[in-house]
Amino acid sequence: MLDLKQDFFALFGLEPVFAINMERLEQAYLDIQGRVHPDRFAHLPDLEKRLSMQWATHANEAFRTLKSPLARGHYLLEMRGVDPAFDTNTAMSAEFLMEQMEWREALGEAQDAADEDALEDLARRIRHSSKTLVDELGRQLDVAGDLEGAADTVRRMKFLEKLQHEINDALTALES
Amino acid sequence: MALLQISEPGMSTAPHQHRLAVGIDLGTTNSLVATVRNGVSLCLQDEDGKALLPSIVHYLPDGQIVVGRKAQATQAVDPRNTIISVKRFMGRGLKDVSHVETMPYDFVDTEGMVRLRTVQGVKSPVEVSAEILKELRLRAERSLGDELTGAVITVPAYFDDAQRQATKDAARLAGLNVLRLLNEPTAAAIAYGLENASEGVYAVYDLGGGTFDISILRLSRGVFEVVATSGDAALGGDDFDHRVFCWILDNAGISLPSDRDSRRMLMKAREVKERLSLDESAPVRMTLDSGDEIDLVIERQVLVDITRPLVEKTLRPLKKALRDAGLEASDVKGVVMVGGATRMPHVQQAIGEFFGQTPLTNLDPDTVVAIGAAMQANVLAGNRAAEEEWLLLDVIPLSLGIETMGGLVEKIIPRNSTIPTARAQDFTTFKDGQTAMSFHVVQGERELVADCRSLARFELRGIPPMVAGAARIRVTFQVDADGLLSVSAREVSTGVEARVEVKPSYGLADDEIADMLKAGFEHAQQDMERRALKEQQVEAERVIEATEQALAIDASLLDEAERTALDAAIAALRSAAQGQDSRAIKIQLEAFNRASNEFASRRMDKSIRQALAGHKIDEIRI
Questions:
Q1: Which of A57, A158, B122, B497 is 20 to 30 A away from residue B555, measured at CA?
Q2: What residues contact residue A101 under an 8 Å CB cut-off, 6+ apart?
Q3: In terms of residue numbers, what domain contains A33?
Q4: Residues in chain B with pLDDT < 50?
Q5: pTM, rounded to two decimals
Q6: Are residues A168 and A99 in the same domain?
């Protein structure tokens, strides 16, 4: 019997690997949401409404997790018994840390100068770096089975995501 | 000769009757009610053939309450007791409301939601809004000839939790069963998308009387997916009126008009603004109570100049929504214009320039939201066959979080999360033996609590005493399909469900609503009981009907003993529902829910399996 504790890949009928077919994921999500969404149950008794909300919430959470490469990588690591430990494990290569510091400096300068173009440029560079990391994570998880390496990549991606958010906030702040 | 009834292919063949459901656009300036009749969504009119109901409520000294056009006609006579644009006060404190100084009301500055002192006593914006909704409910019941099963009420997409809850409370007070709170731009997208069979990325620019929304949606066959939404819950046509009002004051050399003159000048400002959408200039002529004469002419270009900052103010949320969606302006296939304020040519021009295309104005910007809401209400009431329904995926507009040390916000659910959604976060105790914790729930994007909206405070008691840092309190935020938040908390290591008491910052407590409901009935106690009985009977009927339909399809999911038990529960519920004892029905309903829980779960599982199975067949074909 299906239950809310089954893994997200199984929910959508997918193999638990990093390189998933995004179209298949999206179609399976829409098919399931089409069956369980609260709008289908609005005229039914409270019991059915409650079940529907639980399932629709679960499907949204599963889709959100699998759609994002970072969240998907993190989730796969957890399934395989590895905790990337964002808070405690901050050991990174010197090279990555140097790059981080450069980007943080560039962000600070662009913010002080209210330079929209510089922020957009920085965002582009980070997007490019993220893409390289996504490819690396795929190799580590699906091909090499290098879980420690994958955990390191996930931590790096987390850094970049945070930076990306800060750039977006800075851009929004410039507009207001 | 009797004709055989043959249902169209794809039409529902379920043996239930058509359920009366309406969509209500509860607007700042005007409100509407619409319904689907013979497959067509249309606005219902009053006896004079008017669909728009001015959102104006007049409290008279003799206890009468006048709503709509009549209240509008006399608003300058008794401005203090004639409430306009009440939507701006929903879920808001006095300090949140702009232009208070030019409003003629007697505000009661209490903690929480602002109140107005009228000749009929102190009124909450929820009660004022309920009068508007009641008027629309009566109009619909007259027009459709029976009581309503339910209603979809629209709200600005950018409404926060307090404003949404206030709207739902108002609907309850008006005697409406709320099927769903639906975001206004999403309602417009449904009406537009179905009418034009649109596919691709669309933006809905909704500038109403008092609120501004921008939603980016991805439309594909049968799916309406909101990708991002943003806006300003206190920006609308009213602000344009106010700029014109100030221009009139300046140019007529008047500094402090009386309440009555003030209201009349505001009405004149609106009239002039609307005129300037058609003409290049408009006269401003009036004689004030003070005897002062005003005789001015305003050019369209003046309106454009004095309101330019307001139009530009709408571009910021627009850019933010696009960035959140990860899209560029050029990715947008069409821009749907909604709300009366989008009739202004300079608004259309600014938006056209931003997107590099002419905005879509072929639907009536005043009625499109109600039309879409009625279509959704028809689906939610179960009037369409499952295969004809569309799927609507909406989001929450603002992040939800909790206050942590130092007045900082820990975000728990980020903005633009698809609803329904739930997230949990663990907290721990600070002192040895600590048995209670207090939490402050906030909504907004800023890092400091002081810059976000306070939603509620709650206290957790009954935590088992442990050393500091040992307890693990898991706080779960659940946002339902109406975009409304509920919070639960429990101590994880011992499994103790701690008691939660929530105190809304800008909302009404449940007992306040109950008091207001009671006050609405003449013979309070008797009427309340009759209403409770009716509600229980309706729910019992609904449960029995739904279960019998389910059994007709899925009886094979139950073994013989389970089937016998369920049949017995149905019989017990049916006989209780024929009686007059609401408590007896309630007890049978609860017993029935326990008996049918397993059946409902199995049906849900079967449905999900079918969804995936259908999917796999598609793939084999490819």
A1: A57
A2: none
A3: 8-67
A4: 1-15, 616-622
A5: 0.89
A6: yes
